[in-house]
Amino acid sequence: MFDLLIRGALIYDGSGAEPVLGNLAVNGDRIAAVGELAGAVARNVIDAAGKALSPGFIDVHSHSDTYLLIEPSAPSKISQGVTTEIVGNCGASAAPRTPLTRLPFDWADKPYPASWESVADYRALLEQVRPAVNVMMLAGHNRLRSDIMGYAARPATADEVAGMCRLLEQSFDAGARGLSTGLLYTPGCFSEPGEVQELARVAARRGGIYTTHMRSEGSRLLESLDETLDLGRTTGVRLQVSHLKTSGRAHWGKLDAALDRLRSARAAGLDVAADRYPYTAASTDLDVLLPDWAAGDGREAVLARLADPAQRARIRDDILSGRASDYWGSVQIASTHHPDNLRFQGRPLNEVAAALGLEPVDAALHLMATDTLHTSAVFFGMSEDNLTRILAEPYVMIGSDASLRALEGVLSRDHPHPRAYGTFPRFLRAALDGRAVPVAEAIRKMTALPAAQFSLKGRGVIAPGAFADLVVFDPAAVRDLATYEHPHQFAAGIEQVVVNGVTAYRPGHISTARAGRVL
User: Is residue 454 part of a domain?
Assistant: First the structure.
């Protein structure tokens, strides 16, 4: 007798092959058999007639690190069919931490079950809360850098680089499986290429991956991509370009050159891939608008600059000098912090500016100052055609670039990008409707491709002996429902989600029997 039997499903095995109609049996945490399975019986049976079955989706670019400690049932992810998250991206991992380090603002103001410092501490806490999803950890460069030298706006010394490398080694010893950078953000934006290369050499020696939010995804996209590819050639590390995009209309035409560079590098043997979310708007902290000179040395220093009339005027001029006059119509305020600013959540910046009687740039600076740099925003600056082309590249997989959220509790009170709830069903719907790659290829991009790139053995495929991470979905009904105006909405059409052989989700019910693992 099997523990679980899924009957009559259209089975996509994750390889990109066309689906076949059949049954699947599970014993323990593994797939026991796939096929006709005549006469098979099981303790639990899922009737999947008219439905599709695939491996669980792997979110290769997640920021759920600390939120998994608060809401280990991972509602917004498990309801999408996500069974594995890669956390610690963009240089912003939960650990390691020293007294010199501050968590990102959207993590720092939340209640946690306990404190942590090292990756080992964080891993122990994560295992204690028993997440619903599997979790693979990356160590973030911004965390390593701030642990050693705070938020100093300067290149690191040789001794400081050596200190970062030691911390990274310790992180690998405790379970990290890669290095991430966020070279657009402080303090990583102050690093020189040699600093990052030394850390990447550590990751390469340890068999880890290097993921990067590059220094630029717009004006210096090609130069940033060259820096990334050169790092891979120099160090031999496996490369992952995070959320590959061309930001800003003036830079949409750079896609051909960017794809040529990636294709040529892969043809020459460089181990490089990329990920992307299926939306044309990005989301990050509003203070990403600040010029580098104004963003360094920590939050207090930045707020002091904003409070100084002369420096604020210089910041204003620098922000305006790099942007066209119509830029501000592409910005929507997401989450805010100060009580007076809560009314602006989800509203276009131009509307906020009108309400405040300010120019848009001054409204942005006002929010940064009054929210003490706790404002996030959505930036509409990408091409739909370029998005389709990027997602069609065979080495591009899917990543939400989002932390998990919930419909109630502390993680329900902000205003996230809809990708937090809708990334995977949205991409799947596009494939089913013929607006993206074929369905079997779309599923490969969410399962076997990321499993291979991130060395997740036994996951991302449907085959006897593989881990039983599974998604049953209704091809007629699956779709994202979250919007930019109303983001806290579960997707439709995800019928059953199984993690390591245990049912984790069905519509209207998130199981308390959480079976995710730290990988």
Answer: yes
Structural domain for 329, as ranges: 291-379
375 Rama class: left (phi>0) / alpha (psi -120 to 50) / beta: beta
Cis geometry, peptide bond prior to residue 278 (ω within 30 degrees of 0): no
Question: Which single residue is written with the structure tokens 């439709």?
Answer: 492
The verdict on 116 and 203 lying in the same domain is yes
Query: What is the rounded distance in angstroms from the CA atom of residue 366 to the CA atom of residue 306?
Result: 9
Q: Which residue, of 379, 406, 441, is where some domain finishes? A: 379
d(Cα 425, Cα 433) in Å, to the nearest integer?
Answer: 12
Q: What is the pTM of this model?
A: 0.96
**Which DSSP category does 454 fall into?**
T
> Are both 250 and 102 inside the same structural domain?
yes
Give Cβ neighbours of residue 433 (< 8 Å, ≥ 6 apart). Answer: none
> How many separate domains does the chain show?
2
* Dihedral angle of Cα 162, 165, 169, 170, to the nearest 10 degrees: 80
pLDDT tens figures, 313-340 = 999 999 999 798 889 999 999 999 999 9
- How are strands ordered across the β-sheet holding 281-285? 281-285, 376-380, 331-333
Are 50 and 474 in contact by the 8 Å Cβ rule? The answer is yes
